[in-house]
Amino acid sequence: VKWFKQKGDVVRQFEPLLEVQSDKANVEITSRFDGVLTDITCLDGDIAKVGEVLCVIESGDSSGDKSATDDSQHESARKSEEGTDAQFDARLSTSHSERPHAIPSVRHLAKKHSIDLTRVAGTGRDGRIMKHDILAHLNRAEIDIARADTCESMPPRSMPEAGVAPASLEEAEIEHRVKPVHGLQRIMVKTMTASAAIPQLALTEQICVDALEEIRDRICENLGSSGLDRMTFLPVLLKMTSLALRQFPELNASVDDTCTEMTYHRSHNISVAMHTSRGLVVPVVKRVETLNVLDIALELKRLSEAARSSKLSPEELAGGTFAFSNIGAISGRTAHPLVLPPQVAIGAVGRAFTSLAWKDGRAVPTRVLHVTWSADHRVIDGATVALFNKRWKELVENPTSALVELR
Question: Could you say which residues of the chain have pLDDT below 70?
Answer without folding.
Answer: 23-25, 60-99, 125, 139-175, 407
